Amino acid sequence: MGRMRENPRYNVISMRVSDEERDHLENLMKTTHKSISDIMREAMEYFSAHYDQDELNRKAA
After folding, report:
1. 37-56 burial string, b = 16+ CB within 10 Å, else e?
2. What are the residue ranges spanned by the domains of the chain?
3. How confident is the model over 1-54, as pLDDT tens digits?
4. Model-level pTM?
5. What is the three-state SS of the chain?
């Protein structure tokens, strides 16, 4: 039996990207030494943080 993980990830999400987008991701992987999954997780965190801030700014206006 495999090792138990503290925070297991069971969900797989796939998406289609253009050749240029794939090249960009591969360049990011090489420069950051991170996996595509890690890069996408960071992108979601960044988007969420900025989206929430944008929503607050719109409501305040």
Report:
1. eeeeeeeeeeeeeeeeeeee
2. 36-61
3. 567 777 788 899 999 999 999 999 999 999 999 999 999 999 999 998 888 776
4. 0.68
5. CCCCCCCCCCCCCCCCCCHHHHHHHHHHHHHHCCCHHHHHHHHHHHHHHHHHHHHHHHHHC
